From TrEMBL:
The lineage of its organism: Bacteria, Pseudomonadati, Pseudomonadota, Gammaproteobacteria, Legionellales. This is U-box domain-containing protein. Residues 146-206 form the U-box domain. Pfam families: U-box. Residues 104-127 are annotated as: Disordered. GO terms for biological process: protein ubiquitination. GO terms for molecular function: ubiquitin-protein transferase activity. InterPro entries: Ubox_domain (IPR003613), Znf_RING/FYVE/PHD (IPR013083). Gene3D superfamilies: Zinc/RING finger domain, C3HC4 (zinc finger).
Amino acid sequence: MIIVIIELSPRMRFNPFRANVNNLFDVFEAAKNDARVSRTPFISHYNNLNSAQAQMELLAARMSRFLVLEMLLENHFHIANRRAPFAESISRADFHFGGFQSPIPRPSSRPHVQESTDPLAHIPKPNATLSDKAKKVAAELDDKLPQECCDPISMEPLADPIEINKRVYNRETVSRLIKDGKFEDPFNRAKVDPSTAKPAHYMLDAIIAHSDVLAHKEPIMLRNHKSTDVHPLKDLIEQWGQLLRAEIPAP
């Protein structure tokens, strides 16, 4: 058996809550391509569990998103370059991010969990007009959309954002991080009461405002939220300040 660790590049979108083992070949190929382009070793292989564990601890400390694949192969030269045999060789797959770990199942084995009560039911969804506009702007910005405007687990654009413990995630992510009645913060491993969560619709406004910043226009939010201590918005506002202070290139 070999252990393959795939570090996901900062902008790679990967939703561990919807993925299955059959999707992982595409992730592996994308990571290989990212490694060639950036000359960064995103993929590592191990026959020794202790060496693999050391790499996992290093990536977790760096708050990198990564996959750990246990593959029924003698060495990495036997890794298949086709989807079906690649998936068949995987005996176990897990997604990791900080203190969070989630198994990646086979297509037919992901259980459907029916919650008796929704711990996030008290949080309203954003209105459709705001949601649709933010979604459109995010699609238009594409790679220019800041990471601060994305879910830190999946790197998908924020669409139904919820603030908890001074971080912002999509609703689906928050619900999946709740275990035994507590939200388990992947950044600092704190266990937080889900009742403290609240809507973060301001991040949809931030997505829309970012296009104005790129046009060198100061958004109203820059002044209204300047003292925020919520990490994605605080970091984004600092980024906006740098962009607005930068010289406008000559036409």
